[in-house]
Amino acid sequence: MKARIGDIDIHYEISGQGPWVTLSHSLAAHGGMWAPQVEALSAHFTVLNVDTRGHGQTDAPPGPYSLEQMADDARGLLAHLGVARTHWLGLSMGGMIGQVMALRHPEVLDRVVLADTTGQGAPNAVQMWAERAQAARASGMAALVEGTLSRWFTQPFRAREPTLMTQIGAMIARTPVEGYAGCCAAIAGVSTLERLHTLGHPALVLVGDQDQGTPPAMAQLIAEHWPGARLQVLADAAHLPNLEQAQAFNRAVLDFLLAPARS
C-alpha cells in the first residue's frame, strides 16, 4: 500500500492484530529485511512495516535528507492511518529515526527498541558517509554490495547462508542511488545522545557483539543516556542480528514489548 505524505509516496505493509508496532529498517534495505520479525510480531501486534524515504517502493526524491525529515515522514504516515500510539522497532538508521521520533514526537511512541545504532557519529562520520555516497553515485549500488555484506554479517554466517546473502545483496543493489546518498547525509548528522535524558519511554537497546559499524560501546552510550533503558548484547552477530540471530532477537523484542507496564 502507498500513502502520499508530504512530498513523497510512502510504501507500507500492515499485518497482524493488536497494539501497533512500527518497523524502521537500515540504510540500503527495505521492509523486507524484517521478514522474521513480521512473522513473530504479527501474532501479538498490528505491524506497520515501512519503506523509508529513498528506499524500497517509497519515493526517492533528490537529497540530502535529514533524520528529522524522515521522522516527520513516519509521523505523517501514522496520522494518515489514524495511529495514535505505536511501539517502535528500528535498526541502524531506523534506530536513529526512532530516537528523533521520540524527541520530536514523544506523544505517539510507547515502547522503543533501538538495535545496532548510535546517537552520535564517529569523528570521521561526515567524511565517511560523503565518500560512500560518492562511491554509489560513481559506480552504482552494486559496487557497495560486498563491503556492506561484510559489515552486516559475520563471516561464518555468510558462509552458511549463501542464498540469504544473495537476497540481501540484491536488496542493497536495488536501493536507489539518490535515496542511499540522501540518507548518508542524514546519518552523518546524527546527534541525539545529549538529549536522550529528557525521554521517559521504556527503551531496549540491542546490539550484536561483533557489530563493527555501531559497536556495543555505542549502544552502551545510548542506554546510559536514556533514563531506564536496558542494554542487551546478542552473541555471534554483527550489524543485522535480526537476521543473523533472528530467534534470540525476536525473543528479546517480544519479552520487552509484552512485559507488564511498570507501576
Description of the structure:
The protein is an alpha/beta fold and 263 residues long. The protein has one domain: Alpha/Beta hydrolase fold, catalytic domain (Rossmann fold), CATH 3.40.50.1820. 43% of the residues lie in helices and 17% in strands. Strand 3, helix 1 and strand 4 (46-50) form a beta-alpha-beta unit.
Structural topology:
Blueprint: E1 2-5, E2 8-15, E3 20-24, H1 35-41, E4 46-50, H2 67-81, E5 86-91, H3 93-104, E6 109-115, H4 125-139, H5 145-152, H6 155-160, H7 162-173, H8 177-188, E7 203-208, H9 216-225, E8 230-234, H10 241-244, H11 246-258
Parallel strand pairs: 3-4, 3-5, 5-6, 6-7, 7-8
Antiparallel strand pairs: 1-2, 2-4
Helix pairs in contact: 1-11, 2-3, 4-8, 5-7
Key structural traits:
263 residues, eight-stranded mixed β-sheet, 11 helices, Rossmann fold, alpha/beta, 43% helix, single chain
Poorly predicted runs are: none
- Spatial separation of the terminal alpha carbons: 38 Å
- What is the gyration radius calculated from CA atoms? 17 Å
The quaternary structure here is single chain
How would you name the CATH homologous superfamily? Alpha/Beta hydrolase fold, catalytic domain
Number of domains: 1
CATH architecture grouping: 3-Layer(aba) Sandwich
Q: Mean of the pLDDT scores? A: 97
Helix and strand content put the structural class at alpha/beta
Biggest sheet strand line-up: 1-2-4-3-5-6-7-8
> What profile does the largest beta sheet have?
8 strands, mixed
Number of strands: 8
How much helical structure, as a percent, in the residues?
40-55%
CATH fold label: Rossmann fold
